[in-house]
Amino acid sequence: MLLVLCVDLDDDLGRKTGFSTPVIGRDPVEEAAVALATEDPEDSDVNVIFQGLHVYDDLADRDESVEVAVVTGNDEGDVMANREVGDEVDTVLASLSTAEDVTALVVTDGAQDESVIPIIRSRVPIDGVRRVVVRQAQNLESMYYTIKQVLNDPETRGTVLIPLGILLLIYPLALVGTVLDMPGFVLGTTSALLGLYLISRGLGLGDRLDAAVERARRSLYAGRTTLLAYVVAAALFALGGVSGRNELEAVREATPGEVGVPVMLSALVYGSIQWIAAAGVTTSLGQITDEYIAGTLEWRYLNAPFYVLSIAIVLYAVSAFFLDEVGISFLATALTVGTLLGIASTLAFAVIESKYSDGADREPEDGTRQTDRA
């Protein structure tokens, strides 16, 4: 049996018509094609589905064993779309009731959809690939229309027009820089803007920034204390940086000659550790509060502020020792206290969590025993 597979990698059929995919059989596939053509006549996947129907009818007229189906992916990226197509191909193959060996003819509208061919080949042998090209697209008349459609796409506009616009601005900006006697500054600024834009597009920083802003907005409207805790922690961290720099300057002024790297690091840590520890405690308490409000708090989460304090005590003592602020006895005591504080909090909350969880597990058993005795 030959299976004619029409591939719609970005799921235009499902998103625009609401059809549940995969679509199997000539009549359902024809209904899907008509629905997609009615909803969006310009979609190239319409031609793919009708081409699949044409191939099906041609082979059926020759009394060959043939079936037609439409499989789709999603718009979440190539990897997720390919996986979705693979799952739908498995569904189609499982629905075929035939004892014959099944091979496939894949119908696509371009190279992007053909990226899924290895996924299909891993499930069924492929006899051929048919790429549908609209004849009008070969004419010069349609070039204007194609360019217009491309430029109407917001993502394409951002990808093509912005760097092109920056490049076209280089010459007039260079003229302005020459008039202002600052040609190097103007050209450097323009080049930096173009470079930053290309780097941000390449790394997807715009999408990440949008996601971060959306998370912050949701946290704000949901009343999450983590957002406030992060803001306060950022301020405390900045104060810690200033304090550490001031301490480093004081050490440099008080030390004759060159200051070694260990002393410099110790001065930075000694001046900033209390602020950084406060920032760590603030963020951990904010997270604990949100977990408690959401009903997902576990006892071991309460270890976080104690761990922060333990680390802060150890770093403070070590940095103070390198700066000759404390002696060896103070260092040994601080190391012992920091270690014992972390161990004690871990053991304490582990015992409490174990006790409460055991109690919760015993309640249903006790209740069952009481019911049985009754």
Automatic annotation (TrEMBL):
Pfam families: DUF373 (PF04123). This is DUF373 family protein. The lineage of its organism: Archaea, Methanobacteriati, Methanobacteriota, Stenosarchaea group, Halobacteria. Coiled coil: none annotated. The keyword Disulfide bond does not apply. The chain crosses the membrane at residues 158-176, 182-200, 221-239, 259-281, 301-322, 328-352. It comes from the Archaea. Keywords: Membrane, Transmembrane, Transmembrane helix. The keyword Transmembrane helix applies. InterPro entries: DUF373. Signal peptide: none annotated.
